Amino acid sequence: MRKSWLFPGDNDEPYVSQRAGAYQPQSEKRRRWTKRLVILALILCVLYPFVEPYTLRTTQTAITCEDLPTGIGQLRIVYVSDIHYGAQMFSDARLSSLINRINALNADIVLLGGDYARDKWSAAAFFENLPRRISSNYGVYAVVGECDRSPLEKGEEPSTLRNKMSKAGVTLLCNEVATLRIGTSDIYIAGIDDVSTEMDDAKSVAAQVNSKDFVIFLAHNPSVISSSLLLTDRNGRGNWFDLGLFGHTHGGQIPFLEEAFNFNGVPSRYESGLLLENRSWLLISRGVGTTGFPARLFCQPEIHLITVQSGT
Length: 312
What we know:
single chain; globular; alpha/beta; six-stranded mixed sheet; 26% helix
């Protein structure tokens, strides 16, 4: 009898679909591999935020500033913030690698933006136990963050930390202005205490500078930006600083959570990145380390190499 594939009931032998018989093993194999890939993707999604804190990058930025003396021409600034040494996953090996990376950039100036460790005692130990000096052509300058100060220190000078910094070749600026002589020209670095101490005094440092000079404003917390932009120099003129450098936010670490809950209390436009406001350049760093939850998601840690050119 002729077998019919259209009417399997008319056949003498039980009907087995050729299509199903031919392709079922492949379909089953595909389903197994799809399941494995989905499980692997889920595992990677869970693990990746704990890997990203190790993916430190050097963010390079070039800006032009008419107040930078033409005799200097170009200035290479390395900016590093929020190391949080000893907290969570930041080990001695990572610290040594970080300093090597900073020193390899051949900076004219290295600026440190605060939050070096977990508290004021570990911050002092951080500078006391640096594996090697941070090198630059014209000095290393720093401000403090909330993790470097104790709430009990309100009204007090951070003398212990200043002493440890000085021995490590770092100059602390706590509501102070430093003058740097480069060739025959001067530039200025104005640094303030952290807002957590209620002793930050941007007004006093603004009153010490001339807006026609090249001034770098160094502060840990970007919540001071709006009020600082309204201040005037010693001659009553605005636009008293040319470049402002800030940290604290970590870029949110996991930005969509930060956007939803605003844990750090900073306006979203000052979360991270480079801005130009009132003719002043503002850079807010995502920082190096982590706090709270030792993870980042699409928010790589960074240090900065900022090249400033003189001109308009």
